[in-house]
Amino acid sequence: MRIETSQIVITTEERLDCDKARAVRGFFGSLFKTVPAFHGHDGRGLVYRHPLIQYKVLNGSALLVGLKEGAYLLKAVPELERVTLWGKHVQISTQTRTDGTIDFGLCERPLGYAFITNWIALNQANYATYCAIEYDDGAVNRLLTRILIGNMLSLSKAVGYVVDETIELDLAVQACDMAKAKFGVLLVGFSGRFWTNFVIPDNWGLGKFASRGYGTVARVDTT
């Protein structure tokens, strides 16, 4: 399957820190208040689906990534002179957008991916399970493998892709520094690599808080 994608890179006069991704999301969510895909809320509260517009800060620049309808919506983003991040106006140096189509879904040979930002795998329920098995590496790996496959299934559902064969996954991750999900809330993050028979878009995020930059993956050499 091929799906539409769009990426906007915004470089500002000051280098952005990774934790500014949440502020970038807040800015564009305010700019497009009436479009739930930009901020993940509708009139009833949170939209519980995999986000098709995600916000990141990579290499000091803001990155907006959209898939399918999220890609079409990013075409509505105008040329901006500045962004407002946590109340501070920051001048934009460059703003570029790249549109296209990419492969997505099951493939014949395993592909390698690395988490380039912390993957937030655990929710309140499975965090308790994780704590109970924390010192059993095999059990932890099996738990995290199930969770990551679930993340990939959620993404597939969001873009309308039917997974009609088994997703194979070989996971090699480890707990890393606690990730700041929001002010005053720290969650266990995981870093590392995985190999799977599934094509995932580069710079796309999986897991909790993917819309604000966590769980971002990039293709790596499998040799």
Number of domains: 2
CATH topology of the largest domain: Alpha-Beta Plaits
Which radius of gyration do the C-alpha atoms yield?
17 Å
Q: What overall form do the CA principal axes indicate?
A: globular
User: Terminal Cα separation, in Å?
Assistant: 25 Å
How much helical structure, as a percent, in the residues?
10-25%
Query: What is the β-strand count?
Result: 14
**Relative strand content:** 35-45%
Mean residue pLDDT: 93
Instruction: Examine the secondary-structure arrangement and name the CATH architecture of the largest domain.
Output: 2-Layer Sandwich
| CATH class call of the largest domain | Alpha Beta
What would you say this structure looks like, in words?
- With 223 residues, the protein is of the alpha+beta class.
- It folds into two domains: 2-102, Alpha-Beta Plaits; 106-220, 2-Layer Sandwich (Alpha-Beta Plaits).
- The chain contains four helices and 14 strands.
- The protein has helices spanning 21-31, 69-74, 124-133, 137-159; strands spanning 2-12, 41-42, 45-46, 53-58, 61-67, 82-85, 88-103, 105-115, 169-175, 179-182, 185-187, 190-199, 204-205, 216-220.
- A five-stranded antiparallel β-sheet has the order 4-5-1-7-6. A five-stranded antiparallel β-sheet has the order 9-12-8-14-13, covered by helices on one side.
- The model has no long low-confidence stretch (mean pLDDT 93).
